[in-house]
Amino acid sequence: MTIDIMPLVLALVLGYLAGSIPFGLILTHAAGLGDIRKIGSGNIGATNVLRTGNKKVAAATLVLDALKAAVPVVVARYFWGEEAAMLAAVGAFFGHCFPVWLGFKGGKGVAVMIGSLLALAWPVGLIFCTVWLLIALTRKISSLSALTAAATAPIFAYLFGSEWLSMTVLVLALLLFFQHRENIARLLSGTEPRIGSQKKAS
């Protein structure tokens, strides 16, 4: 059986291009909040946008970052099938975390992972959000919430999806852990700031 590689490549490229749209940077500039890369941790994600004090811009960043992953997944599935949809999700994650036009320095991927999971298998996406919210409410540490949700996501992807979906989600989770490597070090040392803190960390 021959595999047509081109649709898979197109899905990966589509995901990367959509994922690399720096909504956090665009929205903070538009709102007159300056360059988000010079604030807090310097990344372009919603958590760092929140450090500007503008909750509406942060919320808009969160939604748009999720959508820039969900849309290419849905488009790829419609035109090229489920395998292409999974590759689009991986591409979107890489695009968000390593956008070529920002020197490969982007966000940490939490919102993008949420959007990808909701588009690939919505029950897994909802469970991810629930786990994140439970940890956030009890421990008050954003990074711990994201890491816990990401660590459990491949298991639920297997239960509610397939082995291929579980492997895809595992790739996303590993990338998210890599992007949070500095946070992990602070968690281990007990210096990770809690939600609402204005320290220069994320």
From TrEMBL:
Subunit annotation: Probably interacts with PlsX.
Leader sequence residues: none
Family recorded in the similarity comment: Belongs to the PlsY family.
Gene Ontology, cellular component aspect: plasma membrane
Cross-referenced Pfam families: G3P_acyltransf (PF02660)
Enzyme class label: transferase
Name of the protein in question: Glycerol-3-phosphate acyltransferase
Organism: Devosia crocina
Bilayer disposition of the protein: Multi-pass membrane protein
Main location: membrane
